[in-house]
């Protein structure tokens, strides 16, 4: 058990049989009444985000989530196959389990798979990935980095707003938390 006073962003907890990840939290001490913790929790099984308020000092169960380093191999009939880098064991995840992560996954990419006991919860992406620009409007001479942006379709199908100087087949670093352009690779 863990006290809600010890919440940290990224902590995984168990409430009413559900697995939740702390996305955001705030300790509130009103002038009148008891202190409480306002939190934003993400369900690791469904992906739903919920706001929940706890009394200060309330105890919740801590969920022990394991990270297994795996390599994304291929997609076959809607199932995405990952291989454990140590024992070569393969697991399959459905598109609904990794819907958001598919925007960033490329074949042979190494990722962490989140496991709870023997249940596979999903994919933990790195903070940034390198993707190739599949198509975008051509750059015009004289465009600068701070002069605005244009849409670009990446090799995974993700649409990213990029500076005007970016061209097709450029390799870009993309932030996986919000899908934004970081820099050229």
From TrEMBL:
UniProt KW Protein biosynthesis keyword: yes
UniProt domain Elongation factor P C-terminal: residue ranges: 129-184
Primary site of residence: cytoplasm
GO cellular component, one term: cytosol
InterPro entries from the UniProt entry: Elong-fact-P_C, NA-bd_OB-fold, Rib_uL2_dom2, Transl_elong_fac_P/YeiP, Transl_elong_KOW-like, Transl_elong_P/YeiP_cen, Transl_elong_P/YeiP_CS, Transl_elongation_fac_P
CDD domains: S1_EF-P_repeat_1 (cd04470), S1_EF-P_repeat_2 (cd05794)
Keywords: Cytoplasm, Elongation factor, Protein biosynthesis
Keyword Cell membrane: no
MF-aspect GO terms: translation elongation factor activity
Pfam families listed in its UniProt record: EFP, EFP_N, Elong-fact-P_C
Boundaries of every Translation elongation factor P/YeiP central domain copy: 67-121
Subcellular location: Cytoplasm
Record-level GO BP terms: peptide biosynthetic process
PANTHER family, per database record: ELONGATION FACTOR P, ELONGATION FACTOR P (EF-P) FAMILY PROTEIN
Cited function: Involved in peptide bond synthesis. Stimulates efficient translation and peptide-bond synthesis on native or reconstituted 70S ribosomes in vitro. Probably functions indirectly by altering the affinity of the ribosome for aminoacyl-tRNA, thus increasing their reactivity as acceptors for peptidyl transferase.
Protein name as catalogued: Elongation factor P
Native source species: Trichococcus ilyis
Encoding gene (name): efp
């Amino acid at each position: 058990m863990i006290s809600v006073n010890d919440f940290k962003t990224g902590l995984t907890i168990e409430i009413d049989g559900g697995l939740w990840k702390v996305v955001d939290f705030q300790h509130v001490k009103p002038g009148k009444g008891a202190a409480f913790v306002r939190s934003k929790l993400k369900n690791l099984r469904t992906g739903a985000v919920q706001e929940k308020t706890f009394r200060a000092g309330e105890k919740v169960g801590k969920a022990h989530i394991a990270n297994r380093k795996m390599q994304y191999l291929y997609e076959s009939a809607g199932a995405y196959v990952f291989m454990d880098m140590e024992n070569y064991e393969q697991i399959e995840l459905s598109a609904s389990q990794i819907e958001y992560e598919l925007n960033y996954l490329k074949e042979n990419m190494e990722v962490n798979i989140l496991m709870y006991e023997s249940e596979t919860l999903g994919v933990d992406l790195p903070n940034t990935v390198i993707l190739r620009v599949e198509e975008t409007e051509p750059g015009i001479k004289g465009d600068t980095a701070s002069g605005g942006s244009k849409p670009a379709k990446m090799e995974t199908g993700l649409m990213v707003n990029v500076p005007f100087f970016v061209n097709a087949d450029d390799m870009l670093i993309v932030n996986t938390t919000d899908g934004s352009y970081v820099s050229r690779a």
